[in-house]
Amino acid sequence: MKQTKYLFDENKMTPEGMVSVSQLQSFMSCPKKWEYGYVENLTPRVERPYLGVGKLCHKGMEHAMRGLWAYDSKKLERPDNWKDALLGAGICAMELEWKEYMDSNPFLEEEIPAQKQVLTDAKAVFTQALGEFDLDRWEVLTVYKDGEAIPALELHFVVPCAGSKGLHGYIDAIIRDKDCGYVWCTDYKFRKSLSPDEEEAVNIQNAVYTWACHKMGIEITGTQTWQHVNTPASNPAILKSGTVSRSKIKTTWAHYEAFCRDRGIDPEPYRAEMEEKLADIEWYRPTFEYRNDQTVKNMWNQIIVPATYAVNSAYTKAKKGKNPRNLYPWNCKMCQYKDLCQAELRNHDAEFLRKSEYVHRTHGRTPDPARPPESAEE
């Protein structure tokens, strides 16, 4: 593949003045929510940034797939335990990420066990997910940045976008199916519950990724959202009789079998019943979406560009207090600004909430994505 256009150059670029899909989604959800987050730069007050299972699993997937790319791109002979080696590389990266997080944030003694449990759960989820991802099937695309071959993993891109200085984002992976040659721009999602396939049609993030791949000169077949449950397999109960419970729980037969063996219990008497009982539990779901060039162009021109211009003008509206609130139960129940919004609507002491419940964060961009005029207020 030739030199890839529009890769973000960390030595020359900053996200200032650019927009992102997450910013546009926040605005389309509710202009006032966007204003709280991107004009006032408010975020709920917490003692430290949160490190969750999903972020750790993303780190593990990135480094495991980097190892896979190294085997292929450097034509290295794979040892018999190559999958274990990739798993180990991912686990190591997760542990380093967790350690950096722990070293950077002061924890009370009683808080540490909960943080350790996050890492334990993340490693269990990642181990299961990597096995289900079918490493034999995929190869990581190679792209070029400044003449150097790099894996198409965590690709930071920036593409021209009217109404702003560009739209930037990160692509988790671009991978090729070795069986059929199809190339998929892939986004990992580690979630409590799996979203239905039908939602992919309105996934503007993947539509933007398709547009970005086109602008970068990377030919893809479509997008893949690869979802996995973000909780580890559960342990069955040990009954008073000393036997293992045969109740259907959120676990896998492999985990159930290992649980038995670790406790000196023969799993064979349980196999026939429990393998069948646990077989229909869904742990992951790959959703593939084909979008033709016209569809992607329509989504870009009719959704992304208008939203970017709307964000642009919303900075001026913010100064005048004219950004509307999209007040709907399904829109508000998960909003991190709902208490502040209600306080303003009811003429309660909103300023007290601003100071007591929120802190200011840095987005790495000037308030106005297109121009920094009178609307840029801290």
Structure description:
- Helix content is 43%, strand content 15%.
- The chain has 378 residues and is an alpha+beta fold.
- It has a domain at 1-44 and 137-173 and 198-221 and 290-378.
- Strands 2, 5, 6, 7, 8 and 9 form a 6-stranded mixed β-sheet that branches.
- The chain starts with 20 loop residues before the first helix and ends in an 18-residue tail after the last strand.
Sequence-ordered SSE layout with sheet pairings:
Layout: H1 21-29, H2 31-38, E1 42-44, H3 53-73, H4 82-104, H5 112-132, E2 138-140, E3 142-145, E4 148-151, E5 153-159, E6 167-177, E7 183-191, H6 204-216, E8 222-229, H7 253-262, H8 268-278, E9 284-289, H9 293-320, H10 329-332, H11 338-345, H12 350-357, E10 358-360
Helix pairs in contact: 1-2, 1-9, 3-4, 3-5, 4-5, 6-9
